[in-house]
Amino acid sequence: MKMALGKLPSKAEALNCLLSRWDPKPGMEEVPLTQAVGRVLAEDLTARYDIPVVRASAMDGVAISFALTEQAGWDPARWEKGREYVRADTGDDFPDEYDTVVPIEQVTFLPQGGLSFSPELTLSRGMNVRPAGSQLARGAVVGRKGTVLTAMDLAAVGMGGYDRVPVVVRPRVAFVPTGSELVPIGSALQRGQNFDTNGLMAAQLLREMGAEPVLHPIVKDREEDLERVLDELLSTADIVLLNAGTSKGGEDYCAAILQRRGALLHGVAAVPGRPMSVAVIGGKPVLNLSGPALAAFYGLDWAVRPLVCRWLGVPVPVRERITATLTAALNPPPAMSMMCRLQVVRTPGGKYLATPLAAKGPGSCAARTLCSEGVYISTPGEPPKQAGETLQVELLRNRAQIREAEQ
Known about the structure:
- This protein has a 6-stranded mixed β-sheet with strand order 15-12-16-20-19-17, sandwiched between helices.
- It has 4 domains: 5-27 and 169-312, Molybdenum Cofactor Biosythetic Enzyme, Chain A (3-Layer(aba) Sandwich); 29-49 and 136-168, Molybdopterin biosynthesis moea protein, domain 2; 55-131, Beta Complex (Molybdopterin biosynthesis moeA protein, domain 3), CATH 2.170.190; 321-401, MoeA, C-terminal, domain IV (Beta-clip, Beta Barrel), CATH 2.40.340.
- The protein is α/β, with parallel strands linked by helices.
- It contains 7 helices and 25 strands.
- Mean pLDDT is 94; it is low at 1-6.
């Protein structure tokens, strides 16, 4: 459905429109634990064993039978290793006939083979012995369904006795760069040509989201080729992203194809990337993202990321935010949600300064804008912000990577 500029749906309305018509049914697969970082656990996992299995020493020392110390005239100087005592290191099992561990710091090994205990030693039955299951009890939860597995999670699951884990199958997200002007990165750039960098960016962003990217080769601006590729990918991918051809240009065939195939909407109150189209074809989401790199990034971030998270059954991640002071005015369009790219620096006093970056126009640099440290997402209807005002900046890099302001 086409809408007048002032009637464009918000990002939330566009997402709700799409999500209400899409009911993904992701499968489950088992993967080796060594390959499970970043995957989403498909079911709860409980420990298969007690750890320790029987019991273990809580410290370095010697294991003895406490009953010996209850006998009249007991003398450790006459004891023999392997008969009255054995060495027991931290975490180690030891023979069942021993039930008490004496700390090594309170033991002297005598030249003739016996032992001498420190006068300060107080013995008690079972001292310094960890019971079975004291580190991990059989049946205890070692992994929760829906957890995005980290290195520490792998250690916990491995402790539970698993070398393979059930995870949610990744959504296959196809990305199709379109445009007769596009050439692969590394080509000798000619007049009228441009590198396909969006495919590179999209593939990495999709991996970070937890999806399996399917990067299709460049498709030139021929409507029949574009529709053929769309149909091919709908048979193999779970989500299809067409990049460019979103507006009303003479070769903007992607938008026309989706309109003909029943687009849910064409145009969203979000810039850059306002003329994007959204459809559900054969039960699968198809999005036509705008061609400029910043617009493609914004669409991937606010529209595609929630789809991947919906599939995986995990919440949409929230970026770290900081309070920064603007060094120049910021004038987002009143009817739009605008992604404003910001250069962020840190003052010697630990405060942050944010400078708006332009991707085009005098003094602009598209590459510098793409590499910005943060973004501000405006709300439709908010007033302009003046230099000296503060705002909440979403960081695109780790806080520790923010450089200090030049003096």
